Amino acid sequence: MAHPAVVEVRRSDRRRRMVSARREGDTVVVFIPGWMSDAEERRWVDEMVRRLERSEARRRSPGRAGDDALQRRCLELSRRYLEGRARPTSVRWVPPMRTRWASCTPADATIRISERLRDAPGWVVDYVLVHELTHLLESGHDARFWAWVQRYPRAERAIGYLEGLSAAAGLGLTGTDGDEPEAEEPEAAEPTEVAG
Asked: Which of 75, 82, 113, 163 is deepest in the core (most CB within 10 A)?
């Protein structure tokens, strides 16, 4: 099996049977019991890298493949959480935005998603898409808007993830499209945008 660029094996005499793996930056770290032979180590490293890659692939957003996949994902999310009412004319990845994760122009039903989110977990990208799709139904961030957004079951968790990502990267992004998530009054300006 082809391995990622860097695999680090950590042996422990305290480990009796369990083998585990995790990613630390660009390195895959595989934890094995100290008693394992070199042959068993190779077999388990292959297996754990395969499992980790499969798990990561499941978490990735289907929209990562390109703009067409992003458009299809939006239509699926609209059907699932917004009664199929939000129908964007265009959804596309754009170069990183300075103040937001995504933006929506309700007048022409277009949505733009920052390339910064390409490596975010799929459920986070889905939240941002649901947020932007909701702007096609409600332009501001009032109670009706948030009632629609909260239909996405991981909305609060995704908001926290985006806030943490912004803080860790020193981006200073707030909300999803530049507004604080708690905002109750609709915004008058278009396009309506999501800051991170």
From this structure: 113
State the virtual CA torsion across 34, 52, 127, 85 in degrees, nearest 10.
Answer: -150
Q: How far apart are CA 28 and CA 193, in angstroms?
A: 36
pTM given for the model: 0.64
DSSP state at residue 136: T
Structure tokens at 26: 């660009």
pLDDT tens digits for the chain (196 residues)? 445 558 889 988 888 888 888 888 778 889 999 898 999 888 988 888 888 877 776 666 666 678 888 999 999 999 999 999 999 999 999 998 888 899 999 999 999 999 888 878 888 999 999 999 999 999 889 999 999 999 999 999 999 999 988 888 777 666 666 565 444 444 434 445 555 4
Give the position of tokens 């909701």: 134
Of 79, 178, 191, which is closest to residue 128 (Cα–Cα)? Answer: 178
Distance CA 23, CA 26 (A): 7
For the chain, the residue count is 196
CB atoms within 10 A of CB 184: 11
In order, the DSSP letters of 80-128 are HHSTT----SEEEEESPPSS-SEEEETTTTEEEEEGGGTTS-HHHHHHH
